[in-house]
Structures are given as C-alpha cells and as structure tokens.
Amino acid sequence: MVVQWVDYQPDNPHKVTPAQHVKFDGQLAMQADFKHKLSTADTFTHTARCPGLNAYRNMGYIIRAREDVHVDKYRWDGFTYTDHFKNWKNSHVLKVPCQYIVYVPEGYSMLVNPIAHSDEEAWYAVPGIFEHHWGPTSVSVFITTTNSKLHLPAGTPLAQTFLVPDKEPEAEFRNFDAEDSINMQKKEELLAFDKPVLERMSRTKKGTLMNYPWYHWD
Questions:
Q1: What per-residue string of b and e applies to 41-67 under the rule 16 or more CB within 10 Å gives b?
Q2: What angle do CA 102, 104, 105 make, to 5 degrees?
Q3: CA gyration radius for the chain?
Q4: Which residue range is the domain that position 114 belongs to?
Q5: Are residues 126 and 192 in the same domain?
Q6: Contact between residue 89 and residue 82 where contact means Cβ atoms under 8 Å apart
Q7: 186 and 145 co-located in one domain
Q8: SS3 of 109, please?
Q9: Is residue 40 part of a domain?
C-alpha cells in the first residue's frame, strides 16, 4: 500500500510533511515543561505522557500553503456551506490550492482534518475527504475565517490527513462485566509509573509513554 503525493511545483519548498516531523510552539513548550518536572518532582502527572494526544498528532501528513493566502484571492463564494450554521454565517470560506495531486490507495479514503491540537484561532480547516475512486486528485484545503483581512504566509500548515479503510468493522455494544473490571485494573497498574520509570522512559527513542514496553497491551 502506497500513498502517492505528486509534486507539480518541485522548486517550491513548502512540501507535504509527515506529521511526526512537524513541531508547533505549544508542543515544544509542553515537552520542555515535562523535562523540567522530570528533573525536579518525585511524582507528577503531565499531558506529555498521554498516549492518545501524542499518537494522534504524529499520525498522517501536514498539508501546507504553497503561497501566501489572502481572503480576497481565495474566497470561494460558490461554497454556501456556512449559510446553514448559525455561528458561521459571517464567515468567509477559502479554497486554498496546494502543489500536489494525490493517489489514494485502493480500499482506503484520506480524511482531511484540522491539525491536531492546533493553537490557531483566526481560521479553521473544514474537514473533508479524498477517495480512491477519484483517481489523481488535486489537493486543496477549505478554510473558514471571520477575518476579512486574513493573511497566511506561504508554508503555513493548513490541515492534517489520515488514511482510513473504506470498510468499517462491525461494532459490538454490551454491558460492562467482570472481565472488563479486571482489564481496567490491569491498565491502571501499568500506568502507575513512578519517577525511576519515567526517567528510563525519557531515554527511549522518542521519549513518550507509547514507547515504553510495559504500556503495550497483551
């Protein structure tokens, strides 16, 4: 299985980037705070240890603006999506083209989502999807903003993409039972880390809870 990102502006430096290689100011500040507390506190809890947050923000790819983005240039008046939402009625929708076409592998679709844990409040990436049967697809990102003078410099991260299988697994809904109680207790014991374990964990390849072998579920 291969996702093909085809760059038709190879001289443009603003490339699609694996999300795990993109670090935002808030993430760097959180990591620095975690390292500080690791060296000064005997026990503590910290967001940097949450596997759900770390795994999500490192998944998929980050799509960037290929050039400077201005509302007047990219406003898409034919997009009436915002008219039907009371809090978006005064928004501008921009269709921002990128420098790629993408081939989504058979059996999968590609979700286009707002960037995980973004600290941006001036605009919002509208979620969407690219599907395999579309063939080669020009990559664009829709964003919405209430700022009529919005300017995003070239290279601005716009959205985060994920591959998901087209066929969803069957779902089972049942009541909590004794086996679930045992499993939850086991999980709590696995997550009850003390400072020596945290120190060993911080020396793993990526320094996150997911890399510590005790965490992985048997």
A1: eeeeeeebbeeebbebbbbbbbbbbbb
A2: 140
A3: 21
A4: 4-17+61-165
A5: no
A6: yes
A7: no
A8: strand
A9: no
Beta strands in 22-147 (DSSP E): 61-64, 69-70, 92-103, 108-113, 124-125, 128-131, 137-145
Whose tokens are 């490339």? That residue is 15
Find where tokens 């993430």 sit.
27
On whether residue 54 sits in a domain, the answer given is no
Q: Do 96 and 154 reside in the same domain of the chain?
A: yes
Alpha-helical regions (H) of 139-214 = 178-191, 195-202
Structure confidence by residue, pLDDT tens digits, 15-72 = 999 998 988 877 788 878 888 877 777 666 777 777 777 788 889 999 999 999 988 8
Residue 45 falls in which region: left (phi positive, over 0), alpha (psi -120 to 50) or beta? beta
CB 135 within 8 A of CB 103: yes
Whole-structure pTM over 0.90, yes or no?
no
